[in-house]
């Protein structure tokens, strides 16, 4: 219709004027401008319609938006995942390298410190369940939990750089007792961990509330893609800022992350959750019991086998998280900035895996078959990392890191989709919390065990062989995960 109107207007503008009709210069210029504009509209209208048709088919997550949840609002809500990704990039990527190489903190102690935030992971299902039934005078269920999680993250980042400098014994802190550094760093990591788990769990629940039922799996997928985007960009920024490491630069970087956390989450929450008077505080109403709800979820078909597969696979993909950057710096001689970029490469691989899995699973593919393929991709990826040490090959090491991320993305999306598909009616939030609890708990145990096993092995062999032993153990765990998932692939959810 627009094309036809433009063509008609264009024909009218080309009609010759009568001989006795005179027009001014401005009328003549306006006529030609009018003709040019509608000629351009007629030219652009057809390609624009074609791009609109193509966009929903090929652009990632272009079909997530709905009338009740526009894409602009959904993307603004996803900013809380950017803040969580920034925290994870700081904890897993930047700080573990700084503590081990620059501050000379033992890898086992670093592994324990970095895994402390994941002590709160088992409570993710409980946090999500409590936010489902929260009563507030303001009429909000999700916002109070997300805001408290944001404040916990801010507090942890605010004290973290000073605690790490005391832990490393730099400057005047060398005269302080060792327990002061241990206590301060431990508290900082615990605060950040409690904050990011609370924010992420309840934020995903809020996204699920806002999205229509048929679009909820896509919305959850988009949220995790934004998490990876946050990890990638944060890793790049941290790597650039810490190119020339100094204690002052560390303080400014970590505290800037604290301020950014507040800003991003305030923007994400603004006018997202509507206020309700249906559940005021002080009014008794019997709520479902958490333990009985969780038992009902676990009694489903192959529920425990699914959780075991999620735990073992996550353990296999996270034991190297705090070792890749020290491996690059100690074995391959990379700088702080170069090793920080490894986190970005790992996240890029995960982003590609998540996008690929979303495309394939949207066509009805078996999610556990996708998860099994992710575990299969991880086996040669770890082999590449192992063989990069004797070859001193940075390209081989980088390729291995990217494919580790790819395998982890395929595995994570497959298990998440399978969990959502198999959730009992009315328990999608609980299922999402259970997946997150098992996944995050296994990730914490994996990071801790990775550092501890590396330190133990280093006492009996070379440092390169110590890293290789941990990577080989991860290959064994991936094979075990594939074996456990064989019945799940045959029994489609």
Low-confidence residue ranges: 40-49, 51-56
How large is the radius of gyration? Answer: 27 Å
C-alpha termini separation? 47 Å
Strand content: under 5%
Shape descriptor reads globular
Helix content: over 70%
Mean pLDDT, nearest integer? 75
Which H/E pattern describes the elements? HHHHHHHHHHHHHHHHHH
- The tally of strands reads 0
Number of helices: 18
Largest sheet: none
**How would you classify the helix and strand content by structural class?**
mainly alpha
| Oligomer description | single chain
In short:
The protein has helices at 2-13, 25-58, 71-77, 79-102, 107-115, 124-132, 143-168, 178-210, 216-241, 247-269, 290-298, 303-318, 324-330, 336-361, 367-391, 394-421, 428-458, 463-490.
Give an overview of the whole structure:
This protein has about 500 residues and is mostly helical. Helix content is about 75%, strand content about 0%. The chain is built from 18 helices and no strands. The chain is globular, with a radius of gyration of 27 Å. The chain starts with a helix and ends with a helix. The relative contact order is 0.12.
List the helices and strands and how they pair.
Blueprint: H1 2-13, H2 25-58, H3 71-77, H4 79-102, H5 107-115, H6 124-132, H7 143-168, H8 178-210, H9 216-241, H10 247-269, H11 290-298, H12 303-318, H13 324-330, H14 336-361, H15 367-391, H16 394-421, H17 428-458, H18 463-490
Q: What key phrases describe this protein's structure?
A:
mainly alpha; 18 helices; 493 residues; 76% helix; single chain; globular
